[in-house]
Amino acid sequence: MDAQHDLLDVDHLLDDEERAIRDTARRFAQERLAPHVAEWFEAGTLPARDIAREMGQAGLLGMHLEGYGCAGVSSMAYGLASTELEAVDSGLRSLFSVQGSLAMYSIHAYGSEAQKEQWLPGMAAGTYVGAFGLTEPDHGSNPKGMRTRARNDGGDWILSGSKMWITNGSVADVVVVWAQTDEGVRGFVVPTDTPGFAATDIKQKMSMRASVTSELSLDDVRLPHDAVLPGAQGLRGPLGALNEARFGILFGATGAARSCVETALEYAQSRIQFDRPIAGFQLTQQKLADMSLEHGKALLLAVHLGRLKEAGRLSHAQVSAGKLNNTRVAIEIARTARTVLGANGVSGEYPIMRHANNLESVLTYEGTAEIHTLTIGRALTGISAFI
């Protein structure tokens, strides 16, 4: 936000490099993406591969990873870039997050050197698009129940099963697929041109329409023995990647919130009713004050958690607190901002209803509000209430 609207002067807490990276991401998002996103959302399409290449050229993909063509910037800088992309649209931030913090992170953190060299440089450049296959049609919040299986066959692996709600699925060159094995849950690097792999786009979405969302089918997909990620065994692998992506979400949600606040402020100052701008009415000012305050608090929380992450002190429960709080705040801000615009708030001419619809998904994916609530409860009490 500009100085007038940065009520709590959060910008002061950032260093020069962080501001520079944020501003670069903001220019890219506003100049290359913002002019087209309403059209993409209305049409329910996204030129994902073209956008991935542009993100790669801008140095955004896997930006917080080291080596293999990745920029190696700080966690804070990655979070601020997430904010700027989601200020345009949550679907665009999802493309960025799934590529960098799920698919690339999994290969970077758990993969062999050969896997890293084969995939990461192209993914950082955006010439390869990645996806992350964990959620299944019947198992979302409980990944232990996954039915996708991988079995050994003459030294090869054979994968069978299905995955649901997979961002980038039908445009991906490679998918990190998680499956049950005799050794527990393992991750597999699956090129999408492998026989038996298929991806079908999910239609009739009312949310995240400027995003490619797919169902994956694995019908006896045969992979070589070295397709498995050697550094990940059990659910710690996929959950570790999800924690990286959730960190991006807790920043990203503040971007959607900021867009709604700025839109409401601008509209209220120009909309004339009863011969004066509606910004001059007390009830409108209350809404503007409350939204700005809640956005500022959410951004302060994100910055604090970013500093903890850089210090190596960020816990899973703290990530859950950030994701739960900031998505809740963002969706409430979107709903309130819509009331400032009245009927115009539902028009695609303004971003508010698009953000509100998207945030319904952001509230749910990568850990529902209920799951993050129970994660916090377990951290507070030492008692698990998941089962």
Automatic annotation (TrEMBL):
<dbReference type="InterPro" id="IPR013786">
    <property type="entry name" value="AcylCoA_DH/ox_N"/>
</dbReference>
<dbReference type="InterPro" id="IPR052033">
    <property type="entry name" value="Glutaryl-CoA_DH_mitochondrial"/>
</dbReference>
<dbReference type="Pfam" id="PF02770">
    <property type="entry name" value="Acyl-CoA_dh_M"/>
</dbReference>
<dbReference type="InterPro" id="IPR006091">
    <property type="entry name" value="Acyl-CoA_Oxase/DH_mid-dom"/>
</dbReference>
<comment type="similarity">
    <text>Belongs to the acyl-CoA dehydrogenase family.</text>
</comment>
<dbReference type="InterPro" id="IPR009075">
    <property type="entry name" value="AcylCo_DH/oxidase_C"/>
</dbReference>
<dbReference type="Pfam" id="PF00441">
    <property type="entry name" value="Acyl-CoA_dh_1"/>
</dbReference>
<feature type="domain" description="Acyl-CoA dehydrogenase/oxidase N-terminal">
    <location>
        <begin position="16"/>
        <end position="126"/>
    </location>
</feature>
<dbReference type="InterPro" id="IPR046373">
    <property type="entry name" value="Acyl-CoA_Oxase/DH_mid-dom_sf"/>
</dbReference>
<keyword id="KW-0285">Flavoprotein</keyword>
<dbReference type="InterPro" id="IPR036250">
    <property type="entry name" value="AcylCo_DH-like_C"/>
</dbReference>
<keyword id="KW-0809">Transit peptide</keyword>
<keyword id="KW-0560">Oxidoreductase</keyword>
<protein>
    <submittedName>
        <fullName>Acyl-CoA dehydrogenase family protein</fullName>
    </submittedName>
</protein>
<feature type="domain" description="Acyl-CoA oxidase/dehydrogenase middle">
    <location>
        <begin position="131"/>
        <end position="221"/>
    </location>
</feature>
<dbReference type="Pfam" id="PF02771">
    <property type="entry name" value="Acyl-CoA_dh_N"/>
</dbReference>
<dbReference type="InterPro" id="IPR037069">
    <property type="entry name" value="AcylCoA_DH/ox_N_sf"/>
</dbReference>
<feature type="domain" description="Acyl-CoA dehydrogenase/oxidase C-terminal">
    <location>
        <begin position="233"/>
        <end position="380"/>
    </location>
</feature>
<keyword id="KW-0274">FAD</keyword>
<dbReference type="InterPro" id="IPR009100">
    <property type="entry name" value="AcylCoA_DH/oxidase_NM_dom_sf"/>
</dbReference>
